[in-house]
């Protein structure tokens, strides 16, 4: 009996000790797997609406562009001419110790009447005009600009490229390779100096273009000067814009050229540029969505023929909805360079984004 009691007591003790040890043993809890956090695109409001941060960087990017469909007409045409254009822009900006580092690209694609593709190998195919269609058919680079602070370089319109707001005028200039520096003062004054290559002969001597301007509450005043190193001729231009009333704005332009050069103004019915030209444009805003403009430009002493010519035009702009605009333009060209004055115009639909 004593032996059985001793054996039973030992068994109870073993069970008790085992239970105590089990109670004291650490419990390992394995956490459930956690999903990787999603990296959403962040809005970048430093440079205005439409910019966002490229994931993993401090670079802000804006994607934009437009789609345009235009129907043209002229007195000497046998029918309507059509243009379909698509433009895509990429605008990248980053802040650095030297100012904003920027990169801007614009790529365009055009298709005129009778052509549906995006590239054309046969230069003899000419649905409109060899001087225009052979250049502007297909997909092409319109702008490619690198900028840091006030310094910029790449491909874009010349610094001299400016005119009146109508569709009848000519201010001179075209696409160029360039290096440019712009100084922007805090009081509304600014100045730019550019070296430009506009020739196809790989000239070592660049053209030189300068601009000084003033922007105030009443409007703007700009003066340009350009020297064509190949032609060894120069041109100057002044443009003033002002708002006479809340709904009425006025623009004035005057140009002078020492001789025919890359920056010469041109008349639709002639070539060669003009020694002098003067123009004006007035616009009335019916509402934030609708406006009407009327203007003209007089061209004096063509460099090649001595002709005097003129152009007048009217433009009606209307925004159907936000970012979807229509434009109707009618222009008249006449003068010594043409046997008889003629009309040209177009209807344009454009969706911006």
From TrEMBL:
One BP annotation, GO: monoatomic ion transport
Gene Ontology MF annotations: porin activity
UniProt-annotated location(s): Cell outer membrane
Top-level taxonomic group: Bacteria
GO cellular component: cell outer membrane; pore complex
Topological relation to the membrane, as annotated: Multi-pass membrane protein
Pfam families named in the record: Porin_2
Predominant subcellular localization, coarse grouping: membrane
Keyword line: Cell outer membrane, Ion transport, Membrane, Porin, Signal, Transmembrane, Transmembrane beta strand, Transport
Signal peptide: 1-22
Domain notes: Consists of 16-stranded beta-barrel sheets, with large surface-exposed loops, that form a transmembrane pore at the center of each barrel. The pore is partially ocluded by a peptide loop that folds into the pore lumen.
Sequence similarity: Belongs to the alphaproteobacteria porin family.
Function comment: Forms passive diffusion pores that allow small molecular weight hydrophilic materials across the outer membrane.
Protein's name according to its UniProt entry: Porin
Gene source species: Nitratireductor basaltis
